[in-house]
Design brief:
The protein has helices at 3-28, 75-84, 135-143, and strands at 60-64, 69-72, 89-95, 102-104, 108-112, 122-126, 133-134. It is an alpha+beta fold. It has two domains: 1-30; 56-143, no CATH class. The strands form two sheets. It has a four-stranded antiparallel β-sheet with strand order 2-1-3-4. The longest helix is centred in the N-terminal third of the chain and has 26 residues, at 3-28. The chain is elongated. It starts with a helix and ends in a 9-residue tail after the last helix.
C-alpha cells in the first residue's frame, strides 16, 4: 500500500475515533434536572392527553433519562403515560394540591378530589397527610378503577 494512502487511512480512523469519543462525552455530560422544570401555564401540553396545563394544583412532570421532560395536566395522565410508554425515568414530581410547590415521587401521597382536569379524582399532598393513599395505590386506582370515583 502506498505510504501516503496508509497515512490518510490511519488519519481517517483516528479522526473517526476522536469524533465518536467527543460525541459520547457530549451526550454523557448532559445533566438532567434535579428539580421540576418551570411550566408555562396555559401553553404547555399534557404528554398523554394533549390538553393544556391550566390548573397547577393537578400538574405533574416526569424527566426521562434521555432528557425529555414530559408534563401532565392530571396525575392520572402521568400514570397512563408511564404504563403506555414505559421508558427509563430520572425523576417525577407532582404539583401540590394546596400550595405552590412540587412534591417528588418519593415524598408524595394522594387524596380524593371531586373534580380534576381529566377526571381521575386525585390531588397530590405530602406523604404524611392523614387519610392519603400512597403512590402505588393511586397509580393502581388510575390504571384499574374499581368504582372508586376515578375515571377510565
Amino acid at each position: 500500500m502506498n505510504p501516503h494512502r496508509l497515512h490518510r487511512v490511519l488519519f481517517a480512523c483516528i479522526a473517526a475515533i476522536l469524533a465518536t469519543a467527543l460525541a459520547f462525552a457530549g451526550f454523557a455530560s448532559v445533566t438532567l434536572p434535579d428539580s421540576p422544570v418551570p411550566v408555562v401555564w396555559d401553553k404547555a401540553s399534557c404528554a398523554h392527553c394533549r390538553m393544556h396545563l391550566g390548573e397547577p394544583p393537578f400538574a405533574a412532570q416526569m424527566v426521562l433519562r434521555d432528557g425529555t421532560v414530559a408534563m401532565f395536566d392530571d396525575p392520572g395522565c402521568l400514570f397512563q403515560f408511564a404504563a403506555d410508554e414505559p421508558r427509563e425515568v430520572h425523576a417525577t414530581w407532582f404539583h401540590q394540591l394546596r400550595g405552590d410547590g412540587w412534591i417528588s415521587a418519593a415524598e408524595v401521597a394522594f387524596v380524593a378530589v371531586e373534580a380534576t382536569p381529566m377526571g381521575f379524582g386525585l390531588g397530590a399532598v405530602p406523604r404524611a397527610t392523614a387519610g392519603a393513599i400512597d403512590l402505588a395505590t393511586a397509580r393502581d386506582r388510575c390504571l384499574h378503577p374499581r368504582n372508586e370515583g376515578v375515571r377510565r
